[in-house]
Amino acid sequence: MFKRYFPILSWLPHYHGRLLGADLLAGVIVTIMVIPQSLAYALLAGLPAVVGLYASILPQLLYCVFGTSRTLAVGPVAIIALMTGAALSGVTTPGTPDYLQAALILSLLSGVMLIAMGLLRLGFFSNFLSHPVISGFLTASGILIATSQLGNLLGIESSGFTLVERLISLVPNLPSLHWPTLGIGFGTLLFLVLMRRQGKKTLMRLGLRSMLADLIAKAGPVFAVVITTLLTWHLGLAEHGVAVVGSIPQGLPALSLPWDADTSLWRALLIPALLISLVGFVESVSMGQMLAAKHRQRISPNQELIGLGGANLAAGLSSGMPVTGGLSRTVINYDAGAKTPAAGAFAALGIAVVTLSMTSLLYYLPIATLAATITVSILTLVDIPMLRQTWRYSRTDFSSMAVTIAFTLVEGVEMGIIAGVILSIGLFLYRTSRPHSALVGRVPDTEHFRNVVRHEVETASHLALLRIDESLYFANARYLEDTLYNLIATRPELEHVVLICSAVNLIDASALESLDAINAHLKDSGVTLHLAEIKGPVMDQLKRSDFLDELTGRVFLSTYAAWRELGEYSHSHPLSS
Amino acid sequence: MFKRYFPILSWLPHYHGRLLGADLLAGVIVTIMVIPQSLAYALLAGLPAVVGLYASILPQLLYCVFGTSRTLAVGPVAIIALMTGAALSGVTTPGTPDYLQAALILSLLSGVMLIAMGLLRLGFFSNFLSHPVISGFLTASGILIATSQLGNLLGIESSGFTLVERLISLVPNLPSLHWPTLGIGFGTLLFLVLMRRQGKKTLMRLGLRSMLADLIAKAGPVFAVVITTLLTWHLGLAEHGVAVVGSIPQGLPALSLPWDADTSLWRALLIPALLISLVGFVESVSMGQMLAAKHRQRISPNQELIGLGGANLAAGLSSGMPVTGGLSRTVINYDAGAKTPAAGAFAALGIAVVTLSMTSLLYYLPIATLAATITVSILTLVDIPMLRQTWRYSRTDFSSMAVTIAFTLVEGVEMGIIAGVILSIGLFLYRTSRPHSALVGRVPDTEHFRNVVRHEVETASHLALLRIDESLYFANARYLEDTLYNLIATRPELEHVVLICSAVNLIDASALESLDAINAHLKDSGVTLHLAEIKGPVMDQLKRSDFLDELTGRVFLSTYAAWRELGEYSHSHPLSS
């Protein structure tokens, strides 16, 4: 019980020296690697760069205590940063103290919501974000983020949080294009793309071991930061108009609560906080599950909610921004050989040391370098083949995806995800409200029954075997009545109708009413209604109503039993289609 | 095509004398019978009594042209009047000209929405009002209406549109209880209840024929109106404080459109209009279907939307109020022998004649008489046995019902129906997100397979036959992964897993991703994944993906085929539970 809520107790008591060595090394590597992206994602959210560092310290420590994944690394991530920026600029003005305060409120709200969902075991809520919706959302967000960085890469101003707003805001500033910034930005972009695509291969050809080559290739952003910072400092580019990070306050953030914010701000951030929580949870938990599966470990989604909630509360208390388990930082941690959450704790301490003493080294770091880092890392989110694949597989799923993309690009991230979820649920309900049903016949010489239109099967004219391919519930109860009344209207010779319920997983009170009506109506028409292959749980429930007493016909265990009883006294004949 | 949109063409050309006689008699009876309820429902909505008459003329004529039911009678009904009152008092003050105008706007909006839904063939939308939600809503509305009439029956003031508001508003006025009003109100109430319960029986015992006795018993409200009006006039009770209908403008309503209303009023009434449209449609169409079934006729739900939409447009144009097919007026029409919609047209003309020339006769009609009429007619909506029955059958359905009742009573009719619909959809989604699944084995000596826990069946230890009892879609895709990973973790001797898809009616893109992941994961663990009994439409769709190429095992037509192939080479043994 205690261990369930404090997963740290499952590994810390057994911690030993060999684990310490591996975790310490991983911690150092992660510290160096995540600094550029932490700064970059804070800027992406419209916040000062140092907020990204703050959000990588205490949140990660909290996650170590409450999280269930061994190797998940928690901190600012691209999508959450984008959503944070959209939420904040909806309620305050970027660059003001209010904006910073709103970021803390957003983190706190998200933390409280995640913890509440965890305690109430509401992790299943995230299941309603379907794969096409998530995939469409990531693709559209990738495009949004890339365009948001165009201004930084070109050295001109851009603003707005939808695609159109951003592109339009760029146009009037195009003439003031800043060539040195553009050089740094696109130079870094090129370098990073090459490192990512060819780095490991080239380094291995130069004689490096696979693991080391991989590590160096992944450190591309670190090299880019070091090189462009030195270059900018040496050439005095900051004085020539290249935007740099500038002075970052040294020292750890003070712990504080934004009590003085007015309540309307809290209320305005409720929905954004909920969406950020859900998206962050889905991103984090699917990655955590993937990693756990590799080692035959398991993570607990509901405890993960508590872990991530704790991390966000910590972010809100320590001048941070909303956080979640990040793909790239987790992969770095995993590849660097992390064995337990202690590695994350060491990385957090490492970043704390940097924040305490080394922020002055980041003064000349060009914003364009960070923009290039963001751009390269998020373009992996854009998944065009998935679009094609989904189109081919299902137009329904594709339409959810397309609507999510369109709304995200045009109306922003929040409307995008809301529209996607509503549409995918609506389409599912619509689909189940018009269930597929099939008249079936016997596959000759077997006890198996299939659709008369698709297979060559035996049938009998006085007997209709109707397989209902959906649970019977309020949305399709009336549709079932229509189907049956049409059936008996078109086949006057019918004496028996058998409803095959092998695919009926539920009969709710509305459907029960309809079955009652159908039974009575068929009785008036001289047709007997039978049921077959009712599942255990459905049968248990039917027994609690009067329906089985009223039923004119019988309940058969199998379709074959019904066929033997009702079908064979007449001459059965094969029917081909 | 033309006939589809003008159902009048399907009966008017064949109209003949014998039908005319029957319809004319029915028309006269309906005219007399519906006047009291038309006046009463207008008062229930907070409108002048005459509005109820206006709403019984033109709307019924329009329905005759566009509606598909032969005997449905259209006009003001209790539930819609209650919803109208709630909607109007939310945006304007009862008794003002604005209030009247808002009623017209509500009718027009409802008319436009119904017609649009009909043309777009959106009749299926009403399916999402589940039976427990409707039943709960009717029960709660019945209670609300009864309490709303308490004030009129006692001769004191009451206000508000939720149960609590109403009861509280009564208390301070209780000392001013008006005894003559109370006498008329409760006297009428007693008379009407007796007529309803004992009237027919008593009259038959007095020697009347069954049909005539029934008709006279049903005319209870008409006698009550006549007697109490005469009494009030004769005793001069109006001068002693008994509230009466008072002077009603004589003549037909002028046709007009409320163009001068400001747009915010139109916008504020959008949601109420939608809810009124849906509830009215459901009430009307379910009654229409019931009556049509009695004569083996059929009604077209989408054309019904157009018919009811036309009726509401007509109501909005002719100083009326929202209307729909009413239970009591339809039953009167049907029992009086109506054969075609012409009966409704005659009744509409009859009411027009009354409105033109006889409204002065209604001057002394006591409001308390109308209140008693409403109270008796709506108490039939309160269906307590249904509550018990639903509780017994399904706690899920019961909870939808209970929430609908609670919200309707506490938060009003609109919130009640919205809460009910959202909850019933949410519960359905929750249920499908945690699907039932069962390991099955062979029923000895058959080709039939059932749950190993419920039946005595044959199994094999290296083979798991898993029947999934739900369509596979985004909400349960991850749940499926969990189920399978737990299965292979607990049975190390497993070599083959067969997913039996007889109940799987859909595999969406999210579930396909999960199946891909499961296939790969099982492969890593040395377990082969097979599928069986995939339905035609699902198989068609799977063929449009790469999944079948990746699948480590095979696709079997039937579970028995899989069993023969995979199960029998090891020693199979019966397993009892």
UniProtKB/TrEMBL annotation, chains A, B:
<dbReference type="GO" id="GO:0008271">
    <property type="term" value="F:secondary active sulfate transmembrane transporter activity"/>
</dbReference>
<feature type="transmembrane region" description="Helical">
    <location>
        <begin position="215"/>
        <end position="235"/>
    </location>
</feature>
<dbReference type="GO" id="GO:0016020">
    <property type="term" value="C:membrane"/>
</dbReference>
<feature type="transmembrane region" description="Helical">
    <location>
        <begin position="132"/>
        <end position="156"/>
    </location>
</feature>
<feature type="transmembrane region" description="Helical">
    <location>
        <begin position="402"/>
        <end position="430"/>
    </location>
</feature>
<feature type="transmembrane region" description="Helical">
    <location>
        <begin position="361"/>
        <end position="382"/>
    </location>
</feature>
<dbReference type="InterPro" id="IPR002645">
    <property type="entry name" value="STAS_dom"/>
</dbReference>
<keyword id="KW-0812">Transmembrane</keyword>
<feature type="transmembrane region" description="Helical">
    <location>
        <begin position="336"/>
        <end position="354"/>
    </location>
</feature>
<feature type="transmembrane region" description="Helical">
    <location>
        <begin position="73"/>
        <end position="93"/>
    </location>
</feature>
<dbReference type="Pfam" id="PF01740">
    <property type="entry name" value="STAS"/>
</dbReference>
<feature type="transmembrane region" description="Helical">
    <location>
        <begin position="20"/>
        <end position="39"/>
    </location>
</feature>
<feature type="transmembrane region" description="Helical">
    <location>
        <begin position="99"/>
        <end position="120"/>
    </location>
</feature>
<keyword id="KW-0472">Membrane</keyword>
<feature type="transmembrane region" description="Helical">
    <location>
        <begin position="305"/>
        <end position="324"/>
    </location>
</feature>
<feature type="transmembrane region" description="Helical">
    <location>
        <begin position="45"/>
        <end position="66"/>
    </location>
</feature>
<keyword id="KW-1133">Transmembrane helix</keyword>
<protein>
    <submittedName>
        <fullName>STAS domain-containing protein</fullName>
    </submittedName>
</protein>
<feature type="domain" description="STAS">
    <location>
        <begin position="453"/>
        <end position="551"/>
    </location>
</feature>
<dbReference type="InterPro" id="IPR011547">
    <property type="entry name" value="SLC26A/SulP_dom"/>
</dbReference>
<dbReference type="Pfam" id="PF00916">
    <property type="entry name" value="Sulfate_transp"/>
</dbReference>
<dbReference type="InterPro" id="IPR018045">
    <property type="entry name" value="S04_transporter_CS"/>
</dbReference>
<dbReference type="InterPro" id="IPR001902">
    <property type="entry name" value="SLC26A/SulP_fam"/>
</dbReference>
<feature type="transmembrane region" description="Helical">
    <location>
        <begin position="265"/>
        <end position="285"/>
    </location>
</feature>
<dbReference type="InterPro" id="IPR036513">
    <property type="entry name" value="STAS_dom_sf"/>
</dbReference>
<feature type="transmembrane region" description="Helical">
    <location>
        <begin position="176"/>
        <end position="194"/>
    </location>
</feature>
